[in-house]
């Protein structure tokens, strides 16, 4: 079996950065080079001050500190890294298409294609090319075609190795992965490549957790895993609406059904809706693929997961407006949290964006606090929607670094991300300085109902 000593990863993002840091850390004899065309990002990965790495993930900076400069390198010299590596991971972004055929649903594979063409141009000896990005089923075929028709007559073996890490727990998920999935061709060279990649992961994971499949099953499993996870969140969120009408409590429901070992307790937390760069994108992609094969019932079924998620975000914003006497115009509402979940600075598809936009449409005055998200990002997220001018967004929404002072004379607070620090605040002090009646809308179910009521808040908890 081929022993891998040099790995290159194209794409130094949320997946490429942490994944390669862990591989380098666990495989000291392998040289790992992560490359990206974004120079700023590479500079940030190479920064002296590890608190300014481009990605915030608990445990990441310690791992980077141990391995960077030894066998872990970040560079913009894509061609040299491709040339030297025996195994090349493609970990570039695959966003939803915003133009042309499949707009709004299909995955945009232009970055993947550029990578394939670049590898074909540069490679002078045999390479194993690993799809790390999340891709539509049968993408490996397209990559193979490009490599075979434009390459310098070298042999390329394509593997699919989707990533299952979740943001905020990336390092933990990588170090203790439930499973690693490796899809490859059922040929002798395909088997050799699968075993070579397997050997990399076997440095720290038990062999039984490394699953080998054919390429298509591996590609499709990734989309299906995300669809199943998101479907659980949408399922419990629809039930949260029913609980609010019937005096049932969604947490008690989650507990009651989660005790059934066939259902299990995870991913049953009702919320303002799921966000993140993956769930919506991957389900839309699944829907698009199903429809393109004429499987309309299959497509409709999965599309409902997204429709329910949009409904939950609208419902939460609507609840704030209706509770505040059907008008939030000119009212000061403090938003706690902008990230799509705690312990990350990522805001992609965060429910906070849609909820803020809905409140701004009603002319609310918003004050946003998030412990990890920067002001520029918040405005960029809103401006991207194009609902109103950038000047108007900046006039109606301010970003604050003091979550307590922000609540002075506020009409309401809405909790949109489940940051731990929110539960530790002095809620009595906050209550004392807010306008009365003082409202708290808890979209993450993290505060203590009894305490909030005792203090005197009008406290609304999603699903109760
Ligand atoms: N974010 C997650 O938690 C997560 C988890 C599992 C899988 N995924 C999947 O992994 C893939 C990457 O996601 P991400 O969140 O890391 O994206 P990202 O946007 O954070 O990073 C992608 C990087 O690729 C770089 N890039 C694009 N084209 C390039 C090229 N031709 N050459 C060199 N660099 C190039 C970009 O500059 C960017 O820095 C996506 O397919 C995503 O669906 C993401
Ligand atoms: O019970 C739950 C669980 C999650 N969420 C929300 O769902 C979203 C996604 O959360 P999570 O899955 O933890 O984070 P991601 O980083 O988006 O990770 C998902 O998407 C990744 C990208 O494909 C996959 O690799 C991971 O396995 C998959 O969990 C977030 O907004 C969460 O707040 C809930 O509302 N309730």
UniProtKB/TrEMBL annotation:
Pfam families associated with the record: UDPG_MGDP_dh, UDPG_MGDP_dh_C, UDPG_MGDP_dh_N
Keyword DNA-binding: no
SMART domains named in the record: UDPG_MGDP_dh_C
GO molecular function, a single term: NAD binding
Catalytic activity: UDP-alpha-D-glucose + 2 NAD(+) + H2O = UDP-alpha-D-glucuronate + 2 NADH + 3 H(+)
Enzymatic class: oxidoreductase
UniProt feature coiled coil, ranges: none
UniProt: NAD(+) binding residues: 11-16, 36, 41, 92-96, 133-134, 167, 278-281, 348
Active site: 278 (nucleophile)
Family annotation (InterPro entries): 6-PGluconate_DH-like_C_sf, NAD(P)-bd_dom_sf, UDP-Glc/GDP-Man, UDP-Glc/GDP-Man_DH_C, UDP-Glc/GDP-Man_DH_C_sf, UDP-Glc/GDP-Man_DH_dimer, UDP-Glc/GDP-Man_DH_N, UDPglc_DH_euk
Highest rank taxon of the organism: Bacteria
Any one biological process term the GO annotation gives: glycosaminoglycan biosynthetic process
Limits of the UDP-glucose/GDP-mannose dehydrogenase C-terminal domain: 334-449
Keywords: NAD, Oxidoreductase
EC number per UniProt: 1.1.1.22
Pathway(s) this gene product operates in, as recorded in its UniProt entry: Nucleotide-sugar biosynthesis; UDP-alpha-D-glucuronate biosynthesis; UDP-alpha-D-glucuronate from UDP-alpha-D-glucose: step 1/1
The keyword Cytoplasm is assigned to this record: no
Function (record text): Catalyzes the conversion of UDP-glucose into UDP-glucuronate, one of the precursors of teichuronic acid.
Similarity remark: Belongs to the UDP-glucose/GDP-mannose dehydrogenase family.
Protein name from the UniProt record: UDP-glucose 6-dehydrogenase
Species of provenance: Maribacter aurantiacus
